[in-house]
Amino acid sequence: xxxxxxxxxxxxxxxxxxxxxxxxxxxxxxxxxxxxxxxxxxxxxxxxxxxxxxxxxxxxxxxxxxxxxxxxxxxxxxxxxxxxxxxxxxxxxxxxxxxxxxxxxxxxxxxxxxxxxxxxxxxxxxxxxxxxxxxxxxxxxxxxxxxxxxxxxxxxxxxxxxxxxxxxxxxxxxxxxxxxxxxxxxxxxxxxxxxxxxxxxxxxxxxxxxxxxx
Length: 214
Fold this sequence. Notes:
Layout: H1 5-14, E1 22-25, E2 28-31, H2 40-47, H3 66-85, E3 88-92, E4 97-99, E5 104-106, E6 110-114, E7 131-135, H4 141-153, E8 160-164, E9 170-177, E10 180-187, E11 192-195, E12 200-203, H5 204-207
Parallel strand pairs: 7-8
Antiparallel strand pairs: 1-2, 3-6, 4-5, 6-7, 8-9, 9-10, 11-12
């Protein structure tokens, strides 16, 4: 079954605390942490319920790994105060991004926005992110490295798309320069990630602090 935008918004509204665990693409509702579409039975049950429901009663929630959460925590801790000084803020896993080109909704691991220029549509979906960060997991790797690159680069406001590996000190960065995208790779704890559009640099040693690699 193919769902409409309205049905997806209803799905999110009916969830008590897990609405940011799901994304919408090509008429299907996806579990963000597994990259798989949820069944029509579950989607219909949520959409047609009369009241908000507790999803955990009938659906196994897949949580982000401890490494994933730690990388995002380190990123947020380092960037929050620096971005504030520049008129920006960073959101973590609570911001739906509207992809106008494909009429999709994504929920990145972290989103950088300009506080004075933030634009939300009628459904409180952000239309003009400045920067987007995704942390790779085995289940979403192909989506983050392939599909989302094209989707995110279609957003006119976007200046940075950063993809972070959680099981090794490695980063892939796409930066917009004169309306062209520059691809930069970082690897090793001694490397330094640079956001040229924000004039901010972040050591991978800081980003991966307390992350244990196998």
